[in-house]
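User: Sequence in, structure out. Go.
Assistant: Echoing your sequence, followed by the structure tokens.
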Amino acid sequence: MLSFIHAGDVHLGNPFTGLSQNLSPDFQKNVQLATFTALDRLVEFAVDQEVDLVLFPGDLYHGADNSPLIQERLTKALTQLDQAGIWPAISFGNHDFQQGQQVHPTWPDRVLVFGPEVETKTITTKSGAKVAISAFSYTDRQHRQSALPDFPVKQAGVDYHLGMYHGVVGQDGENYAAFSLPDMVAKGYDYWALGHIHVRQILHRNPVVAYSGNLQGLNRNEDGEKGFFLVSDQDGQGLVPEFYPVAPVLWQRVQIQNCPDLVTLQGQLNAYHWEQPTLVILELTGQVGPDIEAAARFGTLLESLQASRKSDSDYWPVKAQIVTTAANQKRPALPADVDLQAAIRQVVQADSVGQWLSDQAPTFIRDYFYSEEGQADLADRLYQDLVEGGQDEN
């Protein structure tokens, strides 16, 4: 029997993007500590459930920042896991590739850190199961070569063989260690823990090849519950993932239909029961009152909603837009299994943005669209143009 946690893309210390300068003070602390709190919740769960391993397949850190606070919080978490007899396994991805080249504080003996070459580490769990883990770390941000050919086939003499891989499905030579899914499955591993895509999804089921998404949504395109997979061998059916949410701050899209005026809209938001601190992306559909239309047209709608929020409310509006009836009618019919937003997010990456931008574009424009905030904004606007008719008060 084996149980472990698959937690991709923790992004410790990440500053949220897409928030206005006047963020409510009661939200500031929640936002500043969100990634740390999510990690603490994961550790508490891991200890309580007595799991054998925690797999971190890349982007455990947000970047090269090795600040004392980040190191202190991470070392504390790893020590708690070690004291509970749990093995953390860490590889570095495109955001934290530099961490693999930096000096870190002494971590507990049970911490498994993977270097730039694909390597396999073998452990024995408390129950006596022998587990092999194969992984590698990035040496640069793009990592344009697939690492999959260097992964060995399933190791003989072990009960389970797990793979950690930070990358995307694609052709060898493309960014982010692009790999072939059939080739990955052919390795014969019992589970592949993927990182890089911040959307929870299972690419293959027997064996499972999956992205756990990230622990905490980092911008308005990462709405909905975020967390990790608890993976266990259930009744001899192989390793099966089960999702558990831990994000302390939720990004949530809220639709309100046929709102007659701004006062009614403000009242509805203040009266709603928010179960946790929530950053709201508001979409107004159907008919809206003239004062709402005017506020949207003059760019004051969002500020009005922020100003009217009750001080003790667990929500903060970060975006407000009118989606007209005409725009709704123009929405194309999509296959039920197509997640258009997820597809757009995968396309809008630094490498693709670089190809779209003219070399003559001013530096500040290029810098913006190379940033996570710029890419998130571009993905959001592409979605609006394709599905929502391009209606946006900005």
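User: And one key feature?
Assistant: The CA atoms of residues 190 and 207 lie 6 Å apart.
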